[in-house]
Design brief:
Elements (H helix, E strand, L loop, with lengths): L17 H27 L9 H9 L12
């Protein structure tokens, strides 16, 4: 009496993800589509004429203005 029957070798060309893999992939596609649609809707709400934030003001203040003749002042 054998405790374990011999299992035939698995052919790697015939292994597939199955129904669970397909359903997972479809779920991910739907989730990404819904996130993309929501992001697009939120981006439309942004006003392009917003005032500058603190970082942009600081960067603008730190820039050295050029001399009227085009030289950098050095």
């Amino acid at each position: 009496m054998m405790w374990f029957e011999e299992v035939p070798p698995i052919d790697p060309n015939r292994v597939t993800p199955g129904l669970l893999g397909l359903l997972s992939f479809i779920f991910l596609l739907v989730a990404v589509f819904l996130l993309w649609r929501s992001m697009r809707k939120q981006m439309k709400k942004i006003d392009p004429a917003l005032p500058q934030g603190k970082e942009e003001k600081r960067r603008a203040d730190e820039q050295i203005p050029e001399e009227p003749d085009g030289s950098s002042g050095q």
